[in-house]
């Protein structure tokens, strides 16, 4: 096991030394660094808009100018989302011993399983969050041994959500492809080389939310990430050097452009820098699905998007090498 879980610390610890491991330097503390009183009104895309050309244009513009947007009317039924939220919450509310049966094995290369620490920690400061990771697609990459056995409906519910999500992802990739001037199905067809990785972030209530972070500032390593949170706001994005709360719409999907999409588009689409804050009164939970290349897959600027006037801005490398450098904070 990789040390104490934040959930355990949150429910038990009054020890200043332990709590100090979470308190950030002032220039990182959300209380000091958030622009208060305004939300970042990121683009909202309506998937039922009959003007499909307009939707493509809006998505491309959002990827270029924001790297983050919300999708409303996405056709994932509300009850599918609410069941996903229930089973995830139920898993994290199980006795600690039961959760540890699917804990990530320390030193293993796999990211899958129940865990706490993720990236190399700057200044040894810890994020106020535990998580669960498991691959949900394609079936050949899925290891059900790592999925929670409890609640018993966990698997069925998660599979149902992920099936619906694939429809959303297809539409997103088609629009992003067109927005780059590629054929409609060019990115969608790359899905053979991709995995869908579900994460659940569990942010327990925190007695001093202004001084700690959930997930520290980062861009996602994925091509794109599609996320649903519970009812508790906590996602912040950086815009022109300032941190803002992102507008929260219940049951909207939040899309992040990740590093691989920025690389593939040779910088035309921008990965969004984001972080999360925690809450004094409420537990926050979020369910991102990361669309990532398979480890051996090479990612670099798309050949059709580079020429003499637009030389490649990024190296082409295997995703596993990219991920190793990123997680260990080694320059790419
Ligand atoms: O909880 C959230 O809203 C975002 C979490 C996140 O950025 C991540 O897990 O990469
Ligand atoms: Fe993220």
Automatic annotation (TrEMBL):
Keyword terms, alphabetized: Dioxygenase, Flavonoid biosynthesis, Iron, Metal-binding, Oxidoreductase, Vitamin C
Listed cofactors: L-ascorbate
Source taxon at top rank: Eukaryota
Protein's recorded name: Fe2OG dioxygenase domain-containing protein
InterPro entries membership: DIOX_N, IPNS-like_FE2OG_OXY, IPNS-like_sf, Oxoglu/Fe-dep_dioxygenase_dom, Plant_2OG-oxidoreductases
Molecular-function GO term, any one: L-ascorbic acid binding
UniProt record, GO biological process: flavonoid biosynthetic process; pigment biosynthetic process
Pfam families reported for this sequence: 2OG-FeII_Oxy, DIOX_N
Residues annotated as domain Fe2OG dioxygenase: 194-293
Xref: SUPFAM superfamilies: Clavaminate synthase-like
PANTHER family: OXOGLUTARATE/IRON-DEPENDENT DIOXYGENASE
tRNA processing recorded as keyword: no
Family to which the UniProt record says this protein belongs: Belongs to the iron/ascorbate-dependent oxidoreductase family.
């Amino acid at each position: 096991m990789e040390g104490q879980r934040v959930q355990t610390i949150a429910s038990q610890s009054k020890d200043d030394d332990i709590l100090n491991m979470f308190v950030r330097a002032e220039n990182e503390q959300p209380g000091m660094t958030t622009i208060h009183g305004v939300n970042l009104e990121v683009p909202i895309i309506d998937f039922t808009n009959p003007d499909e050309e307009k939707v493509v244009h809006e998505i491309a513009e959002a990827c270029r100018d924001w790297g983050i947007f919300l999708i409303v009317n996405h056709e994932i039924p509300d009850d599918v989302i609410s069941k996903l939220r229930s089973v995830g919450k139920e898993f994290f509310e199980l006795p600690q011993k039961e959760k540890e049966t699917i804990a990530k094995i320390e030193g293993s290369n796999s990211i899958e399983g129940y865990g706490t620490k993720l990236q190399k920690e700057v200044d040894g400061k810890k994020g106020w969050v535990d998580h669960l990771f498991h691959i949900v697609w394609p079936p050949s990459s899925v290891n059900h041994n790592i999925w929670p056995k409890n609640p018993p409906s966990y698997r069925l519910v998660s599979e149902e959500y992920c099936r619906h999500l694939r429809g959303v992802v297809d539409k997103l990739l088609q629009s992003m492809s067109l927005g780059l001037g590629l054929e409609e199905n060019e990115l969608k067809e790359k899905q053979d080389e991709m995995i869908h990785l579900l994460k659940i972030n569990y942010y327990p209530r925190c007695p001093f939310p202004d001084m700690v972070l959930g997930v520290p500032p980062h861009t996602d390593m994925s091509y794109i990430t599609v996320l649903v949170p519970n009812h508790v706001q906590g996602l912040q994005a950086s815009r022109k050097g300032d941190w803002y709360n992102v507008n929260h719409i219940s049951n909207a999907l939040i899309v992040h452009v990740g590093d691989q999409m920025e690389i593939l588009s040779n910088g035309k689409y921008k990965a969004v820098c984001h972080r999360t804050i925690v809450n004094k009164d409420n537990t926050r939970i979020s369910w991102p699905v990361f669309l990532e290349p398979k480890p051996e897959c090479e990612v670099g600027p798309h050949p059709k998007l580079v020429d003499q006037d637009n030389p490649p801005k990024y190296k082409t490398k295997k995703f596993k090498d990219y991920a190793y450098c990123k997680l260990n904070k080694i320059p790419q």
